[in-house]
Amino acid sequence: MYRFLFRPKWIAFHLLCIFGVVLMVYLSLWQFNRLDDRKAFNREVTERSSQSVVDVSTLDVSDAAAVQWRPAGAKGTYLADEQVLIVNRSQGGVAGMNVLTPLLLNDGRAIIVNRGFIALSGTPPVAPSGVVKVVGLLRSTEGRTTGQAREASGELAEFFRLDIARLQQQIEPELLNVALVAEVSDPADSSTLLPVSPPELSEGSHLSYAIQWLIFATAVIVGWVLAVRKSIASRAQSVPSA
Predict the structure, then answer these.
(1) Which of 1, 93, 145, 212 is in the most buried spot, having the most CB atoms within 10 Å?
(2) Residue 242 pLDDT more than 60?
(3) Which of the pair, 230 or 31, is modelled with greater confidence?
(4) How confident is the model at residue 143, as a pLDDT?
């Protein structure tokens, strides 16, 4: 009665169901892994951002990832002529750009300061002159994402991402291996600049997606069982009784 299950079309059906279940379970595990990564990221940001403010010139920033999201302060003078923009940014549903200006420290090094966000319709303001004190969160350089355009060679005024190594090519003082996202400035910066939004500390939809993939996998298994049972029942009815 069960020989039909080994016919070519049924074997193809079995393999298709197995492939579907394996794929959906894999996608579910992938979403669970992304959820774990997100939770770890949230913990890292929360724990580090709650630390006390430290003078960035005294901080070991050789490992940028280890100090990212820490509160830090910097004191120096802006190199206004070296100001650049990070384009293709959005905040609060508004398209715009981030204004980056190097801050020359007392030891001769400089740190890139993300002074804030401005809409595309706005004009990037000139950095405050004289000695400036800035407090904010440290950020490491941004890697190039898939499909993101590469910056052209030569000196640029606009960039697609915060690439400290690339900025170093056109800025003379040695740049620290981290950038400072400004939160407080003394003297105050232009009111046209909005503070850069902090990262969203949510778990996203990874858990619901993971559960959905498991439900889909279960549905395939149930569908396979029902299909086999229905075929067995129909064949049993077609067999003439003795």
Answers:
(1) 212
(2) no
(3) 31
(4) 79
Cβ-in-10-Å burial (0-12, 13-18, 19+) of 194 comes to middle
> What is the model's pLDDT at position 89?
92
Contact call for residues 45 and 68 (beta carbons, < 8 A): no
Element (H, E) at 118: strand 110-119
Q: Are 84 and 158 in contact (CB under 8 A)?
A: yes
How far is C-alpha 106 from the chain's CA centre?
A: 33
Helix ranges, the chain (H) = 8-49, 64-67, 164-168, 206-238
DSSP lists the bridge partners of residue 135 as 73, 184
Among residues 36, 44, 63, 15, the alpha carbon closest in space to that of 178 is found at 63
Q: Give the model confidence (pLDDT) of 99-108 as tens digits.
A: 999 999 999 9
Tokens of 35: 């959820």
What φ, ψ does residue 172 adopt, rounded to 5°?
-70, -50
Contact 96, 122 (CB under 8 A): yes
The whole-number pLDDT of residue 147 equals 67
pLDDT digits (tens, 9 = 90+) for 115-156: 999 999 889 999 999 999 999 999 999 877 766 677 777 788
Strand 131-139, strand 84-91: pairing: unpaired
What is residue 152's predicted lDDT score, i.e. its pLDDT?
74
Interior angle at CA 55, CA 49 and CA 58, nearest 5? 115
Residue type, 23: L
Report the Cα–Cα distance between both ends of the chain, in Å, rounded. Answer: 16
